[in-house]
């Protein structure tokens, strides 16, 4: 398919009759020329596509469950397998590392060999790796299984997003499908701790991995009949050198960010960050010279797509960093267990899911720019509430503020992948799906690292350590609120009480500071949404790449009609 010549990628959209006729004559996905008399209405999905969506939503949910459930299972794994502290970190982190590293590769691979093939292969690999993890008898086997789970998980979301782009050609139906898909993504985040806690209470730690057996089994059994195959018919060969460069760019960079958030400015994470950036530059330079690149940089010239990716990065940045601080506050300041934290967050999370499904419905009548800008400003108000959380009796304020943030941010979650996919040429859907997922992973890592460092710096600047404590204990207490809690348990007496009070106040001040930073980020997000998406029409008026545009409205309505998206 020919999707807008290079000279048009940066130009403002036009709605002249010549443009409409030229668009109608564009080559379609399967290589057949579109006739001028092509129907103006995109074909609507049938029951088969909706059943296929349901089958694909379950693996989507599972990927986020597996991302979070290991934190609950780790104490049980430690008691059984006895991993070292370093091995514990790799057990927790390797899954996310491998997903982030292989997303771009797997998305582009789907464009080349077929998204359905990659999805089903990934589902089978995920099932096998889950069984290996569930019955692991050593730390090394578990780490290898978690790494393989990450590689398999990287095949799922890009393939699913690309397939949704193919299955739901009508913008209204695609918006609804994206809302349901986003619900499954959020459901995994919300239900992960709950499901994990219940299973760990009833069975051994490996049971949490057995969730993959029925879910991936259903995908493998029903997927071949319900999910259509799609790929780029003109794709070239996969450039293995580009694959290697992408891994060398992403893996050290994400590792450096995680270690930076965990241990602060130390030589190893800094070197990893620099190495990742150097390889990223080399990777991008190579992509610019290849006829069939692993990552098509021309996608970033599509204004609405690049804006949506920017928003996805920013919302993940805020939710990752502020979510970490809020979770730590509930555990370290309020003294709640992880399961209790997950339970308390159920209500605002459910509200977020409901609002997230309403956003595409609203966007059928209202331009996405206004929906996303309004949601970002509502979330900013929620962050203002979080700046008022106190170290004593602050739980209610925290939950109210988070609830408002979730309501405002709910529109961004499902709308950004929809905008990315709806503005993407069909033959590049896998690559675009991988970008949508990759910027989310990167945004969370950046948020945890940068906002975590801001919160930690505030804590260290304000905590008051009693002078009678030994030097090593004082240094530990000043490092973090977790360290202060351990020291307080060791020393006891009045010093412990005063240290804990000061540590809780200092950490709460760090939370307030992070929330204030997030206020400005959400305001910037609203500006980005309005400036970058104001030309995008509502879903009801939106044409999609590869589909014939809607017939122009009568001249009397032309002044108020929506512009086609380029």
Automatic annotation (TrEMBL):
Respond yes or no to whether keyword Hydrolase is given for this record: no
Q: Where are the transmembrane segments?
A: 50-74, 94-111, 118-137, 143-164, 176-196, 202-226, 238-255, 267-284, 305-329, 341-362, 369-389, 395-420, 432-454, 514-533
Where found in the cell?
Cell membrane
Does this UniProt record's set of keywords contain Methyltransferase?
no
Source species, domain of life? Bacteria
- Annotated region Disordered: the residues are 544-566
- Pfam families, alphabetically? MFS_1
Question: According to its UniProt record, where is this protein mainly located?
Answer: membrane
Recorded GO terms, molecular function? transmembrane transporter activity
> How is this protein situated with respect to the membrane?
Multi-pass membrane protein
- Pinpoint the Major facilitator superfamily (MFS) profile domain residues: 52-536
Listed GO CC annotations: plasma membrane
Keywords in alphabetical order: Cell membrane, Membrane, Transmembrane, Transmembrane helix, Transport
Q: Which InterPro entries match?
A: MFS, MFS_dom, MFS_trans_sf
Q: What is this protein called?
A: MFS transporter, DHA2 family, multidrug resistance protein
Instruction: Please tell me the species this chain comes from.
Output: Micromonospora coxensis
